[in-house]
Amino acid sequence: MAARDAIVFEDFFPAMVEKLGAEGFMKELCNGFRLLMDGEKGVITVESLKRNLGLLGLQGMSDDELVCMVREGDLNGDGGLDEMEFCTLMFRLSPALMNSSRTLLEEALVCEM
């Protein structure tokens, strides 16, 4: 992709957390994971992302860009994103959530008790 064609992501996550609370936001992330995952493998793969690009509004992404997206979040090196890796990646991609992640974690833990 040329620099002028770069995809710019607007960080809507802080607004979602404010509206849904930490627990509701985590449920939405998990729903997003299930929407994008390969049903047979139980992880998000390059192929499952490719099939779901329309849902994300990212139809113009190349295979190389998809590989990079999966590789960025693939912490265990298995070639796919499990639910925890996906959620971790989503937090890392949101600077505002990274700054407030401790507060969100504490709120989620209080809800669990």
From TrEMBL:
Q: Name one GO molecular function term.
A: calcium ion binding
Limits of the EF-hand domain: 61-96
Which PANTHER family does the protein's record reference?
CALCIUM-BINDING EF-HAND PROTEIN, CALCIUM-BINDING PROTEIN KIC
Record protein name field? Calcium-binding protein KIC
